[in-house]
Amino acid sequence: MDFKAEKFGDVTVIHIFLSRATLAKAVEFKDYAISMINNGNTKIIADLSICEYIDSTFLGAMVSVLKKTNTMGGDLRLVYNKEVTSLMFVLTRMDKVFKVFTGLNEAIASFSPGFGTLTWK
After folding, report:
1. pTM for this one?
2. Could you tell me the domains of the chain?
3. Nearest-CA neighbor of 46 among 83, 85, 18?
4. Could you report the per-residue pLDDT of 39-48, keeping only the tens digit for each?
């Protein structure tokens, strides 16, 4: 399984278990995320923390998901904890389009300022 959704209050986190997020998985991600949105989940975080590389096609899929969430009053935010922002993010100016966070706690808190920190069981 390449994607798994997890709920934190009204925020849905889609964990992306890919070291390389590329054309091969872009449509599958888009379909997965759009199905989450169609089920009423409009505050979405794409957890890309284990991704080492994101290509332009996968970025395009994320832009489509962002547009869909925005039309429904929500947002798509990213967790991408690389020290150096992906060259693809910079070249395509996607670092200006998406709200990017280095940690999941920070991304969740950005949706729900009073949420606090995560406690793993």
Report:
1. 0.85
2. 3-110 (3.30.750.24)
3. 18
4. 999 999 999 9
